[in-house]
Amino acid sequence: MLATLKTALSQSWQTIFVAVRALRRNKLRSVLTALGIIIGVASVVAMVAAGNGARARIESQVAALGQNLLMVFAGSSRSGGVFGGLGSASALTLADAEAIRREVPDVVALSPEVSSSSQAIANGRNWSTNIVGESPDYLRIRDWKLDSGSMFTDREVRAAAKVAVIGSRAARELFGPLNPIGQTVRVKNIPFVITGVLTSKGAGMGGQNQDDRLVIPYTTAMKRITGDRYVRTINVEVGSSERMEAAQQQITSLLRQRHRLSADRDNDFNIFNQKEIADTANAITGVITLLLGAIAGISLLVGGIGIMNIMLVSVTERTREIGIRIAVGAQPAAIRLQFLIEAAILSVFGGLIGVLVGVGTARIVQVFADFKAVVSPGSIVLAFGVSFAIGVFFGFYPAHKAAALDPIEALRYE
């Protein structure tokens, strides 16, 4: 039994050695044959890494919105056949916000929001930035910390005080190396005292820089900056993720009742659930990643066809050699195994190089893109495994054809 096993192992190693020697005789052709597999594997790894990176970026941006967040937007307006877009209708009031805070028990924090863009002047500099009116709950809702200073208070909101919390980008543009705390910034010739500086959050949903903003009490924004009587958005934090849907339904019912909407009328507001946003974004990026991977996978198929083509050429070129081997006692199974091993070596070689090229391409992509490409071990294993399977699959027919050659006809072949 042991002797039989040693003989089988010896024959296997001999077959592998013969296969490697055959490939080395035509180095350039072997490399060009493996090139299709290299490109295919590299494309799959790089494309999937880019898709995973985009998904991770979107997930981080959604998470940056806050925890258990519901966003209530005013509906869209229409004038002369032209839609004003989400948030353009005059539907949400401060009274609506107070009613939500008071009557929906799952709400733990709430911030009415108004926003505008304006020139801010300070320290001899001016900078166009986002002016955002919020409540003191804003930092809790957005899970946003202060780098220094403090948030304005409910008392300052009620008094429509001229105080502000500034984002890190706006602070850098307006004050440079100076500490903004206690400094004054003027917006529409109205002086605001800086009480706090926000930590940096970077780009948010839509690519907008979240750090380029000046956060002031919403009452101050409505009275002194925008002149609005309505709010564009009401940001709501729910106590737990399990109560998100129930809270959303309660807010919908409450607002429909307050706006006196009959059963046959549509809502004049929209409620966006943070989980729904994340699920939608993940679904979109998942489809894109799958599509990119499928497109890249086509090149793997082409590489497999290239292997089969070259192996058929090799069988034709080595017909006389095969006939001699069969004539001196080589079994058809050994001939078949030799050509299968040659195809497998080409695909494995191409797969290994392709993985390295794919990882390198992913690293290059993230230098020029605004997100980090995420190379997952699963995509590497999948691409390498598929390349090996394709090599064996497309190498089987040439191997079978070689094993089925008639030795007499093969010896006569010129």
Verbal overview:
This protein has 414 residues and is α+β, with helices and mostly antiparallel strands. The protein has 2 domains: 17-61 and 280-412, no CATH class; 92-267, no CATH class. It is 57% helix and 18% strand. The protein is built from 13 helices and 12 strands. The protein has helices at 2-25, 27-64, 94-103, 138-141, 154-158, 168-175, 218-226, 244-258, 274-317, 319-327, 332-368, 377-403, 407-412; strands at residues 69-74, 77-79, 82-85, 107-122, 125-134, 146-149, 163-166, 184-187, 190-198, 213-217, 233-238, 269-273. The strands form 2 sheets. It has a 6-stranded mixed barrel with strand order 4-5-10-7-9-8. Strands 2-3 form a two-stranded antiparallel ribbon. A hairpin with a 2-residue loop joins β2 (77-79) and β3 (82-85). α2 runs antiparallel to α9, α2 (27-64) packs across α11 and α3 crosses α8. The radius of gyration is 34 Å and the shape is elongated. Residues 1-10 and 77-88 have low confidence and may be disordered.
Show the helix and strand layout.
Blueprint: H1 2-25, H2 27-64, E1 69-74, E2 77-79, E3 82-85, H3 94-103, E4 107-122, E5 125-134, H4 138-141, E6 146-149, H5 154-158, E7 163-166, H6 168-175, E8 184-187, E9 190-198, E10 213-217, H7 218-226, E11 233-238, H8 244-258, E12 269-273, H9 274-317, H10 319-327, H11 332-368, H12 377-403, H13 407-412
Parallel strand pairs: 5-10, 7-9
Antiparallel strand pairs: 1-11, 1-12, 2-3, 4-5, 4-8, 4-11, 6-9, 7-10, 8-9
